[in-house]
Amino acid sequence: MNAQDDVHDEGGRRLDQIRLTGLSATGYHGVFAHERREGQTFVADVVVHLDTRRAAAGDDLAHTVDYGELAQLVVAVLGGEPVDLVETVAERIAATVLARPHVQAVDVAVHKPQAPITVPFGDVVVAIRRDRTKLPAAEPYRPPTGQVRRGDGRHPVTADQPGARSAPPLAEPPAPTPEPAQPVPVATAQAAPPVPARVSVADALSGGVPTTDAGRRAHDAGPDGAGAVLVGPAPTGAVPTGVMPAVPAGPAAEAWSAAHAEPYSYDGPPTELMAPVVDVERTAPTSPAPEAARTELMAPVTDVVEGELVLDAFDEPPAHPVRAVLALGANLGPAQDTLRQAVADLAATPGLEVVAVSPLARTAAVGPEQPDYLNAVVLTRTTLAPRELLRAVQAVELRHGRERREHWGPRTLDIDVVVHGETLGVTDDLELPHPRAHQRAFVLQPWAQVDPEAVLPGLGGGPVALLAATAPDRDGVRWMALDWLTAPVPAANAEPDGAGEAHHP
């Protein structure tokens, strides 16, 4: 380990390293047509910088990096979506590694030993370092749609990979199937502590919602005043049901059903459901068809097949209330009244408790010409799962006429889930923390006002007050009003008076 390779923490202590070298895959990256057509070998070396002491002290994988999973993800990037530049491949790998919560920095070297160079050469290497201050210029790798997680819950398994079970043909009984491994959660999440105080809708509208540092301390306290709360593991499978085709009549039906209790695949012509056929040579003409010959609903399938809906950590409710941060915005109609009513609607949502409300900020809009936005941040605690919370706030948006017709267009009400406990994750419909919260002053400045010691977790996170002071759109925040829940703000619905930075989180 060379000194120039070291990364230090905020206290000047050298971070530990996990090295993955020689990861290779056939990729189709390059600017030439033959590179996209024929492919070539790409090799990656990855050095992960993190503090491994907590993991070692507790002998707990949850506090370090699963390098087996990480190696699979790096190889997936190398052999994944083709791009022109090796630089882009390196950035994607760095983003994928930095998405792990314990990683502080990452070194990535991508080798292209078969590069189309017309002179003798040994190798081509693009090497980068990315950390929490110099973020990658790419998005983390996401498994493609239809890929499901099975087995140990950490490594995706699809039908064409080792470990994926293929169903037996219709004509032959299936081989004995081993008991499935106990599922491990797709993603683990540490929940933030709940707060003891309750706030009613009346409090929210009468100004009783705390906006001081006391409210922030209550927001961070646990049910007994201290201690962190851990969210339990998420389920990793779904239980589908289906319809079995017509089966033979008589005693053979029972034997056939017992032998085919597992799901199967059938490659022949389509089979239609039909009435049972009665053997006229063995059954009297007046005998009814045996009950076993009828088409029946099959027993629930206990395994996951490709294409099914698979639950993830975002569907798992926390074991105890956790903090959640919501960002509100509006610029159509009586925006201040809409935001006040939205706070009341949120406080009336089952499983969601309003803890504190920030000052009201007026911020410049971007995109089509439109009025300035009014923005606020609401601190809550909740027993809802992340995806349940998303649906709840979307229901409040719809109640106030929200329509998604134009990107960055004017809105009657916009509510974003910024933080849900310490949950970190990315899905097609939700990303936590909000991926652009660390860059948006119209979120950060009101948040810092109501909770000066708040910390945004995840990639690009940090102390909210510091992020607010350096946000690119900080000059777009025109003013903030403290008592907006109880008194009208005269200039709240003013028309735009100049261009500003993006307000949309």
Protein described:
The chain has 505 residues and is of the alpha+beta class. Helices cover 21% and strands 19% of the residues. It has 11 helices and 18 strands. Strands 9, 10, 11, 12, 13 and 18 form a 6-stranded antiparallel β-sheet that branches. The chain has a 4-stranded antiparallel β-sheet with strand order 1-2-3-4. The chain has a two-stranded antiparallel sheet with strand order 5-6. The chain starts with 15 loop residues before the first strand and ends in a 24-residue tail after the last strand. 33% of the residues are buried. Mean pLDDT is 74; it is low at 146-174, 180-202, 204-218, 220-249, 260-269, 271-285 and 494-504.
How many helices? The count is 11
Distance between the termini: 41 Å
Q: What fraction of residues sit in β-strands?
A: 15-25%
Low-confidence stretches: 146-174, 180-202, 204-218, 220-249, 260-269, 271-285, 494-504
* Strands, count: 18
Q: On the 0-100 scale, what is the average pLDDT?
A: 74
Helix content bin: 10-25%
* Estimated structural class: alpha+beta
- Order of helical and strand elements: EHEHHHEEEEEHHEHEHEEEHEEEHEEHE
- Rounded to an integer in angstroms, the radius of gyration calculated over CA atoms is 28 Å
**Shape verdict:** elongated
Major sheet details: 6 strands, antiparallel
Topology:
Blueprint: E1 16-27, H1 33-38, E2 40-50, H2 53-58, H3 67-78, H4 86-98, E3 105-111, E4 125-131, E5 148-149, E6 156-157, E7 190-191, H5 201-206, H6 213-220, E8 229-230, H7 251-259, E9 322-330, H8 335-347, E10 352-357, E11 360-363, E12 373-382, H9 386-399, E13 414-420, E14 425-426, E15 431-432, H10 441-450, E16 455-456, E17 462-463, H11 464-470, E18 477-481
Antiparallel strand pairs: 1-2, 2-3, 3-4, 5-6, 7-8, 9-12, 9-13, 10-12, 11-12, 11-18, 14-15, 16-17
Helix pairs in contact: 3-4, 10-11
